[in-house]
Task: structure prediction
Amino acid sequence: MNHILVRTVVVLAWLVLPAGIVYLSVGADAGWAVFVAGLLLLLGYHARNLGRLLEWLKRPDPDTVPGTIGIWDDAFAYLHRRERRHRQKRKRLRRLVLRYGQAGRALPDGVVVLDAQDRIEWCNEKAERRFGIDAQTDVGQPITNLVRQPEFVDYIVAGDYSGPVRLRTSRESGLTLSVQIIPYHGSQKLLLARDVTQAERLEAVRRDFVANVSHELRTPLTVLVGFLETVRELQLDPDRVRSYLGMMADQANRMQRIIDDLLTLSALESAPEPPRDERIDVHQLIERLRSDAEALSAGQHRICLEVQGDFDLLGVESEIAGALSNLVTNAIRYTPAGGEIRLLWRAAADGAAFSVVDTGVGIEPEHIPRVTERFYRVDRGRSRQTGGTGLGLAIVRHALLRHQASLDIESEPGKGSRFTARFPGSRVVARQTSIHISA
Ligand code: ADP
Result:
């Protein structure tokens, strides 16, 4: 303020000084005339700069701040600095809002910001897809106009947001959402919609699995307990007792096999990734599979080997051997006497394939996609008769998956089946040639 006062006094002094000189040297009239002319010039200067200021204020841009001299120059320089600072601040804020918007969009959950009256203020793309909201046109709409499931409407009306509510939607091929409202900043609300479809499916699988295991173990256990009570309660001759004991041993073995297979599955699930530097000698493994198959078949089937691939596999030998052995055992169990079983090892598109081809009972097409599920059997009686647990193909699928391999099943009822384990190129290596040095 003082600064402005001093400058005003200086300007007035510059007006008074020449006017005074003219007043003294030429006369009073001339002196006044010079003073008035000076005043008019000063007025013009202020009026012009005021006009420029008003013009600039209509579109304040720091790059177009007018330049001038005197006190107005200071004012314009100040405006220039202030406007530049504002611009930078606005830019920073815009960037911040943009970044928060991007973070909101990147969230895996659907997010909707609601006002105090539960009207939509903002939502991300996930929420748009999950609830069918349009982020542009639905702003200001009450959320219950768009999400109309009664459970959700009740949840909003009750206003108790201490826990989430589960909603099933028909969108995105049937999702289950866990929706939770989080109040913030007084009456604002944040709606979070988490996709729990997979978790729910896993929970259902776990429940079914526990029920299946209980059922599978309860059956032989009931038989076992029945025999035990019979032997304990009744006076039986030793031959009958021996025969009962034999049947009890069968049931106990059955339980043992189920538990062994369950442990194998669980070990496969928790084992670390199979190494890529451990070689499995596939030729030797197939030879072993053939002799095991012949022992199991006891001469009832013709077993042929067709090994064309001159390469080995990389991975865990016990897992691959277990998986392929399951396929061979199944082929024998599901092929009537007199049938043929072929074991093939050959190159395949980008890798190698091991196939077991049988001329057995085959599988109806509708069962094929399900036979690798735990405890799924096409013919329960036949499976049980031949000592099956219903877990063999589940173990095969798991062991192969761990080696990035897949299982293909082709089958025709009454004609036979072909089970093919396909290994990717990353798991296949050329065979090491063994050198024999004869003495
Ligand atoms: P299981 O112990 O019952 O054999 P698996 O998991 O090994 O259990 O097989 C699941 C089901 O797939 C079997 O119950 C059987 O119905 C069918 N299956 C498996 N292998 C063959 C095959 N080679 N030929 C016909 N059916 C088969």
